[in-house]
Backbone:
């Protein structure tokens, strides 16, 4: 893909990849700015379900407008390749930013407040992220956090509007264990439908990770991690963590 163009976007470099897509930095030749292009991996490029999921991600994320959520510019297709063009966020992932001893409390509060504000905005607009984790958050060079990757996002379930429109909005996203294990809420592991509280659990995991430099639930295997999430209390926090912050993390992980 490097050096190629999709419509008016010239691909410059690969910056990341996951199960839902590959992300490149590209140049918007019309507006003369860098953007992030998310395209389907080669093995799913021709899969109609994967293409519909990509479109669903664009629709959900583009319904949000908040300084702590990555902005979607366009969804398009060129040479049979579907793509999302979005804001290119300079900086590094939150996971790369967290040292082994955890972040200073002031930095944690600054970033945590921003993440909570972004989630509040998404939930107020009926969107749950479902895969919130420190590697899906970028911290800009100015110290602003940006929530990325709405590939598993869903509309918040509404009992009175469980219609075909909702099913179309989230194709293939059956309620259940979707996401990243260490950040999954207990109800998700039990196969129950996630809601906004599942994102708040993930926020609690991230806050703990920022405070301690490690995850609150750990194990040598996936089974051990799942068991810890379902049965164990979270690991302890460093003594330097203020009591008020401890209560916030405890409440998120309740």
Residues:
């Amino acid at each position: 893909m490097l050096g190629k163009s999709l419509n008016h976007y010239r691909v410059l470099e690969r910056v990341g990849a996951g199960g839902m897509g590959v992300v490149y930095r590209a140049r918007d030749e019309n507006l003369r700015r860098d953007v992030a292009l998310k395209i389907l991996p080669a093995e799913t490029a021709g899969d109609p379900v994967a293409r519909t999921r990509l479109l669903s991600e664009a629709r959900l994320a583009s319904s949000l407008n908040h300084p702590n959520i990555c902005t979607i510019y366009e969804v398009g297709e060129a040479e049979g390749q579907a793509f999302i063009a979005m804001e290119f966020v300079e900086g590094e992932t939150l996971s790369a930013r967290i040292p082994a001893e955890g972040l200073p409390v002031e930095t944690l509060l600054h970033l945590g407040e921003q993440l909570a504000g972004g989630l509040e905005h998404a939930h107020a607009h009926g969107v749950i992220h479902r895969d919130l984790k420190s590697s899906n958050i970028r911290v800009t060079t100015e110290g602003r956090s940006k929530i990325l990757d709405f590939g598993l996002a869903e509309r918040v379930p509404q009992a009175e509007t469980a219609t075909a429109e909702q099913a179309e909005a989230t194709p293939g996203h059956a309620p259940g264990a979707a996401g990243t294990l260490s950040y999954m809420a207990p109800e998700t592991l039990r196969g129950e439908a996630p809601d906004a509280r599942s994102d708040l659990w993930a926020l609690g995991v991230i806050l703990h990770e920022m405070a301690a430099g490690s995850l609150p639930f750990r194990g040598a295997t996936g089974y051990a991690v799942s068991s810890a999430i379902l049965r164990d209390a979270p690991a302890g926090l460093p003594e330097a963590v203020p009591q008020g912050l401890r209560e916030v993390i405890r409440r998120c992980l309740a």
Remarks:
- The radius of gyration is 18 Å.
